[in-house]
Amino acid sequence: MTIAEIIAAVLVIAATVMVVATTVALWRAPDALTRVNLLGPTVGVAVPLLLCAKLIIDWSTTGFDFWNLVKVLLTLFGVWIIGSVGSFYMGRSIYGVTVTDVKFARRKAARESKDHKVVADNPLPAGIVPDPNAPQSPGDAAAQ
């Protein structure tokens, strides 16, 4: 093995370790939003390491080729841009689906509650505390 092949092999092994670590982390992630964010090491580091390993092998066999360097750089920036924009849009769509509006949840719980008891000025069921920042009447909403 030449030195270039050893360097390329080390880069491929490092990329493989990152992909395996990301896979294990994806299995253990508690929700979809966390899974989308865990793709960062693979897209941001592992794929560029594989591109660099391929470039090193090409240069060791055929010599320096400027066009190969340009192709790898374009691919590298393309992967980073597409990965970041894609994960942004996936994260936004997942966040919109998984996050619950607290006020809506309280109103829904109040409607579905069978033992709906009005205690003082709290129209919510027992155990649900009203939001202190919420306006108390329609006139309060206009004042804020």
Automatic annotation (TrEMBL):
Spans through the membrane: 6-26, 38-57, 69-90
Keyword Membrane set for record: yes
Region of interest: Disordered: 113-144
GO molecular function annotations of the record: antiporter activity
Keyword check for Membrane: yes
UniProt keyword terms in alphabetical order: Membrane, Transmembrane, Transmembrane helix
A GO BP entry: inorganic cation transmembrane transport
InterPro entries, A to Z: PhaG_MnhG_YufB (IPR005133)
Protein name: Na+/H+ antiporter subunit G
Provenance organism: Corynebacterium phoceense
Taxonomic classification: Bacteria, Bacillati, Actinomycetota, Actinomycetes, Mycobacteriales
